[in-house]
Design brief:
By secondary structure, this protein is of the alpha+beta class. The protein folds into 2 domains: about 220 residues, Hypothetical protein, domain 2 (Endonuclease III, domain 1); about 120 residues, Nucleoside Triphosphate Pyrophosphohydrolase. It has 15 helices and 8 strands. The strands form 2 sheets. Strands 1, 4, 5, 6 and 7 form a 5-stranded mixed sheet that branches. Helix 8 packs across helix 11. The radius of gyration is 24 Å and the shape is elongated. The mean pLDDT is about 95. The structure holds a DNA duplex (11 and 11 nucleotides). Keywords: 4Fe-4S, DNA damage, DNA repair, Glycosidase, Hydrolase, Iron, Iron-sulfur, Metal-binding. This is Adenine DNA glycosylase. It catalyses: Hydrolyzes free adenine bases from 7,8-dihydro-8-oxoguanine:adenine mismatched double-stranded DNA, leaving an apurinic site. Adenine glycosylase active on G-A mispairs. MutY also corrects error-prone DNA synthesis past GO lesions which are due to the oxidatively damaged form of guanine: 7,8-dihydro-8-oxoguanine (8-oxo-dGTP).
DNA sequence: AAGCCGGGGTA
DNA sequence: TACCCAGGCTT
């Protein structure tokens, strides 16, 4: 199983072609590795880099993260998506302060017991922070192993995923993989999948694993890994109320603690126009002027959403703010967690 | 096992 | 448009 020298060939490739200047590598601390790994869940490197730099500048260590207000953390996450990652991140920081002396725990099992850290992320943190010998299995590794070992079937299927984990474990257990190179090996797998063994048009001519790669031998590198089974996503629509008062401020509401965009600040949202009209009537809102703005198309992983914003300019003093809503200025919005399409809409609004 | 949870890059 | 990405949590 390990005679293919998978790990050592990958490391030799990494020394020449790997990425050695990512921001979380300099300096490389457990806190920065952890933050980067969570940000990188289902999110590409180029997207993460500016968010990572802003986050560590604002909250440079674990105690600072634990002590920050939840709204501050969500604001720093705003635009990255999957906001439960941010909530879990802070919850984990508080657990570390309470149970682990203010640091990340030193074992993968204790890491994986923290919210937001699963098996692969725990292994990535431990190997990169302390050179611990643990296998990772992220999207990159799944693709590389599916090709190298010729594994058929969608990697998201549990049976396929179990096979891929066993291959990943066998490679990391290779005695030829030096104990001081586990951090590099983890990074090498990610870099290899992200830059050479890419989803489309992999650079097989430059591949150090080519002679043992089953997909290449069978000419199936463009067919593996097997794509996810097709699914047609449902379409939904919603009406957003853009209320502006005399001062030009906009009314934002905190969203419910569960569901999409949980606990973020957004515009009042309704299933349809009737719901919006009813809400306006209940709050005795008297619009001086109103108009429909351009629709916003927004895609989620499980449905498509069309947002239909309706602008109302309100006359006179309107008192509809409470603990979960308030009138905000353009500069207020910068410090709040706001869904990306709503932030785009508000930025356009304030420019006019 | 399947559904939920964002946003952006890419072909 | 459709798919994928340094996944994990909930049911």
């Amino acid at each position: 199983m390990t005679t293919d020298a998978f790990a050592t060939r990958l490391l030799a490739w990494f020394d020449v072609h790997g990425r050695h200047d990512l921001p979380w590598q300099h300096p490389r601390s457990p806190y920065r590795v952890w933050l980067s790994e969570v940000m990188l869940q289902q999110t590409q490197v180029a997207t993460v880099v500016p968010y990572f730099l802003r986050f560590v500048d604002a909250l440079p260590d674990l105690p600072a993260l634990a002590a920050a207000s939840p709204d501050r953390v969500l604001a720093l996450w705003s635009g990255l998506g999957y906001y439960s990652r941010a909530r879990n991140l802070q919850a984990a920081a508080k657990l570390c302060l309470e149970f682990h002396g203010g640091e990340l725990p030193r074992s993968v099992d204790a890491l994986a017991a923290l919210p937001g850290i699963g098996r692969s992320t725990a292994a990535a943190i431990a190997s990169q922070s302390w050179n611990d010998r643990h296998a990772i299995l992220d999207g990159n590794v799944k693709r590389v192993l599916a090709r190298f070992h010729g594994v058929d079937g969608w990697p998201g299927a549990p049976a396929v995923e179990r096979r891929l984990w066993s291959f990943a474990q066998a490679h990391v257990d290779d005695a030829a993989l030096a104990p001081d190179r586990l951090a590099d090996y983890t990074q090498a797998q990610m870099d290899f999948g992200a830059t050479l063994c890419t989803r489309s048009r992999p650079a097989c001519v430059d591949c150090p694993l080519q002679i043992d790669c089953i997909a290449f031998a069978e000419g199936r590198q463009n067919e593996l890994p097997t794509p996810r089974p097709a699914r047609t996503l449902p379409r939904r629509s919603a009406v957003l109320l853009v209320l502006r008062n005399d001062a030009g401020d906009v009314l934002l509401q905190r969203r419910p603690p569960t569901g999409v965009w949980a606990s973020l600040w957004s515009l009042p949202q309704f299933e349809d126009e009737a719901g919006a009209v009813s809400w306006l009537g209940r709050h005795a809102v008297d619009a001086e002027e109103s108009m429909w703005l351009d629709d916003i198309a927004h895609g989620f992983s499980h449905y498509h959403l069309t947002l239909r914003p309706r602008l109302h300019r309100l006359a006179g003093a309107t008192r509809i703010a409470d603990a979960d809503s308030g009138w905000v200025t353009q500069s207020d919005i910068a410090s709040l967690g706001v869904p990306a399409p709503v932030r785009t809409l508000l930025n356009r609004l304030f420019e006019n």
